[in-house]
From TrEMBL:
One of its GO terms (molecular function) is branched-chain amino acid transmembrane transporter activity. The chain crosses the membrane at residues 26-43, 49-70, 77-95, 101-122, 129-147, 178-198, 229-253, 265-291, 303-329. It comes from Nonomuraea aridisoli. One of its GO terms (cellular component) is plasma membrane. It is found in: Cell membrane. This is Branched-chain amino acid ABC transporter permease. It is a multi-pass membrane protein. Keywords: Cell membrane, Membrane, Transmembrane, Transmembrane helix. InterPro entries: ABC_transp_permease (IPR001851), LivM-like (IPR043428). It comes from the Bacteria.
Length: 337
């Protein structure tokens, strides 16, 4: 076979199909529809359902941080609820004891959770696997009695009750609608921040650490540095979610932040989809609605029903609900290019 014949065969070969463009269009279209529905929903739903959607957004922000640590950095954490509580109590104490306006409590709660996460992350990140999981679990366990001990500051077992933020008169919104839009704005900002972070050099370093630590270290990635930062960023987002939680609920107590919260958050992000930006939203829906559904099905054994539902979801979608949705989108017929 001559060189010209080989060249003709190469030039006549059909081009490879472009698959990413169709998926990207579907994702952007779904995102646009989701945002429109999110803005439209509070004007059509009863106050209780608006409250439930607000809590979904709060949990989604917390799960966004957990996803950054577990899904993108490959580290296990069973203490995420502790940082959620730190943000909630920081906001509550500043509002109740210091009379600080509620918008100013958000950056303070984020900073406090970040610094505590950074401090705890330095020794914790020297561990991995089950050892790291046990250390983070210990953080969630000792936080509750610690909050009860400092009664003058935290209110002890009785907790703290505070007034919910009221909507400005010019908005014409009800209280539940105002809180919903606050949570929506915070959630959108958090998702944009994490999305830009993951597209940067830092995101590539986190993925390298997750996929193969030895190879990442050979390539010059500082493992301890990025692991610690991921732990701190994860804690910061949990603190942000905890602050908004305080505004929405208007009450905090140690019993609201037990180990079950950390376990539910971890289950939520696994079911929602690790390593996916849509996973935290789906996980937020799971954390908000599945426990209540389990309680309605059987008052005597809600934990059993909850566990069975997790098993059923993971059997149908082992990569999470976000992974299942991605596979369904890829199966949609596309025009040949």
């Amino acid at each position: 076979m001559t060189e010209s014949t080989k060249t003709d065969e190469k030039t006549s070969a059909p081009p490879a199909p472009v698959r990413t463009s169709a998926v990207a269009r579907w994702r952007w279209g779904a995102l646009a529809v989701l945002l429109v529905l999110a803005v439209y929903a509070p004007f059509q739903l009863a106050p209780f359902y608006v409250f439930q959607l607000t809590m979904v957004l709060v949990y989604a922000v917390a799960l966004l941080g957990l996803n950054l640590l577990v899904g993108h950095a490959g580290q296990i954490s069973l203490g995420h609820g502790a940082f959620f509580a730190i943000g909630a109590y920081t906001a509550a104490i500043l509002m109740e004891r210091e009379a600080l306006p509620y918008p100013l409590t958000l950056p303070v709660a984020a900073a406090v959770a970040f610094l505590i996460g950074l401090g705890l992350g330095v020794p914790a990140m020297r561990l991995r696997g089950l050892y790291l999981a046990l250390v983070t679990l210990a953080i969630a366990i000792f936080l509750v009695p610690l909050l009860k001990r400092f009664e003058e500051l935290t209110g002890g077992s009785m907790g703290l009750t505070l007034a919910k933020p009221q909507p400005p008169a010019w908005t014409g919104l009800a209280e539940d609608q105002w809180l919903y839009f606050i949570a929506l704005i915070v959630a959108v900002g958090a998702f944009l921040l994490v999305a830009s972070l993951l597209r940067s050099r830092v995101g590539r370093a986190l993925h390298a650490v997750r996929d193969n630590e030895i190879a990442a270290e050979v390539m010059g990635v500082r493992l301890s540095f990025y692991k610690t930062l991921a732990f701190a960023w994860s804690a910061m987002l949990a603190g942000v979610a905890g602050s908004v939680y305080t505004w929405v609920i208007g009450f905090v107590s140690p019993d609201s932040f037990t180990v079950n919260l950390s376990i539910n958050l971890l289950a939520g992000i696994v079911v929602g989809g690790l390593g996916s930006l849509s996973g935290p939203v789906l996980g937020g829906l799971f954390v908000m609605f599945v426990p209540s559904i389990s309680q309605d099905i059987n008052d005597a054994a809600p934990g059993v029903i909850f566990g069975l539902l997790i098993i059923a979801v993971m059997y149908v979608a082992p990569t999470g609900l976000a992974g299942l949705a991605g596979r369904l989108i890829k199966k949609i017929p596309r025009k040949k290019e």
